[in-house]
Amino acid sequence: MIELKDFVTWVQMPKKKNSTTKKSDSSWAVKIPKVKESKSQTKTINESVVLSSSIKLLKKSYDLIKFQRKFLSFSLLSYIVLSAILVINISAFSSVRNLKATYIHGLLTIGSNISASLSTLGSLSGTISTSSSGAGSVIQFLLFLIFSLVFIKGIREASKAKKLRFSEGIYSSTYAFIQLLLVILLLVIESIPVIFSVFIYQTIFSNGIAASGLEKTIWVLACGLIMLAGLYLIVSSIFALFIVTLPNMRPWASIRSSWKLVSKRRLLIARKILAMIILLFIIFGLIALLLVLLIPVISAWLLLILSLGSLIVVYSYIYSLYREML
């Protein structure tokens, strides 16, 4: 029998804890550390992207065009031939020869004569690439839409290191015709403030409506604000030109995606696009100047090739910028 002393000792002994149960429980427990949110973590992905300089973007666009040069060359040639047959105002070619004397006279003097000759060249380029009839303008717009899709298709596939055959690219690029049409119409609507501000500025200052310095300052600020509003809308929607060509993409969804993509970076994108416009204007302006001075007989056709071919450069540059934004 157990003695009373031994029984009391057994009762007063501390009981051992079941260590195996606690170990098994702790082995299955997952500890989630609490992380404090910082301002850097709340930034969007777009804000962390470092964009290349305008020169590097031009280099990237040149590489895309060079890789897909065969397809883009055939496409541009088709665009030129169809434009020459259906749209081009051939009678405007005769006025190109008169530009040589205008340029020589403008280069010998400084100031208004040079600007007048450059404006004459710009108006001539616009006259050559447009039609005098309403039907011709419609055909020109349709050709612009179709070959915009073709050029975008070629540039997109070049970024994937895939060369296109001419027939393959033509047939596979026109599925987004209606979608691109709606996006371009929206961009035209968004450019109305820019056109309106330029019209108001020219009307005010050409007719002498603003006489004092204060009135001129007020009108310049007003026109500038209206133009900035239009540029804000255009920059926000510019990448929809490429997003809408993706499979099963609706126009409004592409506009929303473009606005999200450029969020808090509109000023930087506007600077990149403005730098592209200035660089292309300088390069193509110098080339056009040499063409008119050296070979005025065929300079009109070469100007036509430059004006239509610049569309490829613009699309490849903006697409390179779009790829860096992703």
Reported for the largest beta sheet, the result is: none
β-strand number: 0
- The helical percent reads over 70%
- Continuous helix count: 15
N-to-C CA distance: 86 Å
Q: What structural class should be given to the helix and strand makeup? A: mainly alpha
Radius of gyration: 32 Å
Uncertain spans, ≥5 residues at pLDDT below 50? 19-46, 110-114
Q: Hey, roughly how much beta strand do the residues contain?
A: under 5%
Order of helices and strands: HHHHHHHHHHHHHHH
The whole-number mean of residue pLDDT values reads: 77
Shape: globular
Keywords:
single chain, 326 residues, mainly alpha
Overview of the structural elements:
With 326 residues, the protein is mainly alpha-helical. The chain has a domain at 52-186 and 237-325. The chain contains 15 helices and no strands. The chain has helices at residues 4-12, 19-28, 54-67, 69-86, 97-108, 112-128, 134-159, 166-173, 177-190, 192-206, 213-237, 240-243, 251-261, 266-294, 299-325. Helix 5 (97-108) crosses helix 14 and helix 9 crosses helix 13. The radius of gyration is 32 Å and the shape is globular. The chain starts with a helix and ends with a helix.
